[in-house]
Write a structure and sequence with these properties.
The mean pLDDT is 78. This protein has one domain. It is built from 5 helices and 5 strands; from the N terminus they run H-E-H-H-E-E-E-H-E-H. It is α+β, with helices and mostly antiparallel strands and 103 residues long. A 3-stranded antiparallel β-sheet has the order 1-5-2. It has a two-stranded antiparallel sheet with strand order 3-4. The longest helix has 12 residues. Its cofactor is FAD. It comes from Streptomyces badius. Keywords: FAD, Flavoprotein, Monooxygenase, Oxidoreductase.
Amino acid sequence: MAGGGIGGLTAAVALSRRGWRVTVCERASALTGIGAGIVLAPNALRALESIGLGPAVSAGEPLAGVLGLRTPDGAWLSRTGATASRYGPPATGLPPAPSTAAL
């Protein structure tokens, strides 16, 4: 697996739990959890739950308010407030250190 960030580590955990032998290659000498946090949408939260990482992401903070994508003229394409109850828990923000440590 190339990269020891949140995406690379998550993929490595998922593949390892499916029986693959995985090696994570990272340029940095240590995984320090420095950097930007991540916002996880309901589908990402369900994916992490399915590979046993639900407790790790429960340390995050549900995002207040409405997040989403808008067109250049300001019209909504999608909003989290409209999808949270339909697709699962609300989008959650995680700082980098706890998410990296959990993985």
